[in-house]
Design goal:
CATH class of one domain: Alpha Beta
CATH architecture of one domain: 3-Layer(aba) Sandwich
Distance between the termini: 8 Å
Shape: globular
Mean pLDDT: 92
Structural class: alpha+beta
Number of strands: 12
Number of helices: 10
């Protein structure tokens, strides 16, 4: 479906549901647009899911930094077991934003500097590690910093296995252009583990997940997840069994539930556990993004479609200028997963979406518009198929 059609449907549905609001509808302390009722949100979600045959979707709404609604719809397995708000789902690249929150805690403690070059952050040269021997003849690797990794400006492809020869290489000088890269987060994990002596799984558990009471979240597989676990549904409706990840990956190994993600993002919006300066740094526009789409990551084609949104890289998130002021978002995707978090900074208002069916991404523009109103979210940059 083209973006114009998605927008039109979203506008009609949003208008219908906002008209159902009681006169004393909830309004934030900043005088922002009234939020729809929980029942209206749920009804909209079910309507859109039916349209695109989405098998499973969970959502949470945050307003003024507090969780106001959490819900789950559909099924979590081929057998029809229901998806619940406690179902363990794949977090995908939402993991990167959670890891960024850990990094900013370390910055607050003076244990890590965002602009320190990687050549100074490891006990030995990066190419001396077996996974990075491909970089031995390109000294530019030493200029990479944690900020560049978190801004996605390292110069790497998303993953080396997407290269024709499966080898790691720099496509441009670090810090010169945006290009989404999981490879960068592998280096960040190396810095945390080899340079600082942290265990990523333990550090995330103690510093992030336990802080926010996230009892169904982990960077590695836990056997207790099995009792309420979501398998995935691909675009053709076929099943993708949940992957039991035995090793933590900063790029995307987090298993989680919508209940846990709701508390995580509410805490991030409030800035719990961070200094005011580090919380501001998370969502400060730091590197302009001029590409027409996020993927393919090495495509340098520029476009003017999103100029008004002022897309920029923050620390682990993408920032933009919405109709309601500063905003930011983070997605997570694979062949059977579609996750998205969108937050309005001034209102401390967010929509958190986890889906174990990649087709859910087709309904996100209309669903978010029905909850937050028209916020000028650059959907066709995030999802290039919307512009086809």
């Amino acid at each position: 479906m083209r973006l114009s059609s998605v927008r039109a449907l979203g506008t009609r549905l949003a208008f219908a549901y906002f008209m159902m609001l009681p006169a004393a509808g909830c309004r934030s302390s900043l005088g922002a647009q009234a939020m729809p009722t929980a029942s209206s949100i749920d009804s909209l979600a079910r309507t859109l899911m039916q349209r695109e045959r989405v098998q499973g979707l969970a959502l949470a709404v945050i307003d003024a930094g507090a969780v106001t609604h959490v819900a789950a719809f559909g099924r979590r397995s081929e057998a029809g077991a229901p998806l619940t708000t406690g179902t363990v789902m794949y977090g995908a690249s939402l993991t990167k934003a959670a890891v960024a929150y850990l990094v900013m805690q370390l910055v607050d403690e003076g244990r890590l500097t965002l602009d320190a070059p990687v050549r100074t952050l490891l006990p030995k040269l990066l190419p001396e590690y077996p996974d990075y021997a491909d970089l031995a003849t390109d000294t530019r690797w030493g200029d990479i910093t944690p900020r560049m990794i978190l801004n996605h400006t390292t110069g790497f492809a998303n993953f080396r296995w997407l290269e024709p020869d499966k080898r790691l290489r720099l496509h441009h000088a670090p810090g010169t252009r945006y290009g989404y890269s999981g490879e960068g987060f592998y280096i960040l994990q190396l810095i945390l583990e080899e340079g600082l002596g942290l265990d990523l799984t333990a550090a995330m558990q103690h510093r992030v997940f336990e802080r926010f009471g996230m009892t169904h979240t982990s960077m590695q597989w836990r056997p207790d997840f099995q009792e309420n676990l979501a398998d995935g549904f691909r675009a053709d409706g076929s099943i993708e069994p949940h992957d039991e990840r035995s090793r933590a990956s900063a790029a995307g190994s987090m298993d989680t539930s919508i209940e846990d993600q709701a508390t995580l993002w509410a805490g991030i919006v409030r800035g719990d556990g961070l200094s005011a300066a580090s919380r501001a740094e998370l969502v400060r526009p730091q590197f302009p993004i001029t590409s027409r789409h996020q993927f393919p990551t090495l495509d340098t084609t520029a476009g003017s479609e999103h100029a008004a949104a002022a897309l920029s890289a923050g620390v682990g998130v993408v920032t933009f200028t919405s109709a309601s002021g500063p905003a930011w978002f983070k997605g997570g995707h694979n062949d059977s997963t579609g996750n998205m978090v969108i937050c309005l900074e001034r209102q401390r208002r967010c929509v958190v979406l986890l889906a174990n069916d990649v087709r859910a991404e087709r309904i996100y523009p209309a669903l978010v518009r029905g909850i937050l109103g028209e916020i000028s979210m650059p959907w066709s940059w995030e999802y290039d198929w919307l512009a086809r």
